[in-house]
Amino acid sequence: MDNCIFCKIIRKEIPCNKIYEDENILAFNDINPAAPVHFLLIPKLHIDSLTDIQDNHQSLLGKMLLLAPNLAKEQGCEDGFRTIINTGRVGGQEVLHLHFHIIGGRERLPAMIHQG
Ligand code: 5GP
Ligand code: ZN
User: Fold this and answer.
1) Does 48 contact ligand 1 (Cβ within 6 A)?
2) How far apart are CA 89 and CA 6, in angstroms?
3) How far away, in angstroms, is 80 Cα from ligand 2 center?
4) Confidence of residue 1 (pLDDT cuts 50, 70, 90)
5) How far does the centroid of ligand 1 lie from the alpha carbon of residue 116, in Å?
6) Whether the CB of 39 sits within 6 Å of ligand 1
7) Where do the DSSP E strands lie in 13-86?
8) Active site residue 114
9) What is the Cα–Cα distance from 14 to 71, expressed in whole angstroms?
């Protein structure tokens, strides 16, 4: 994926503030944080979005989910955090490389969905 910004980060063509890396997964701070802790967890494999996941991605996605609370705690989320996966146009996804936003800090986050 030549022009994908997150693939460029994976290939180290664009710098990032990395917080975790292994063979299959990278986590780095969001360039425009919405809260004191805001990092992105991405697979190194380019998958456009959650609508494109396949059966053979199960263990990769499971690993990402298992990592999320450990990294969140390491980054200072002592008492919970929010996980967001924007998907497609309606979901407001701007970067078409699957990513989990992990957002938190010390204070309670504002309600995400306002009803009524
Ligand atoms: P989306 O709207 O696709 O769910 O979120 C994309 C996120 O990627 C945004 O929060 C944006 O700030 C972040 N982002 C976009 N480009 C870069 C970049 O070059 N570096 C980093 N660290 N984050 C980026
Ligand atoms: Zn990509």
Assistant:
1) no
2) 18
3) 28
4) confident
5) 30
6) no
7) 18-21, 25-29, 37-43, 82-84
8) no
9) 22
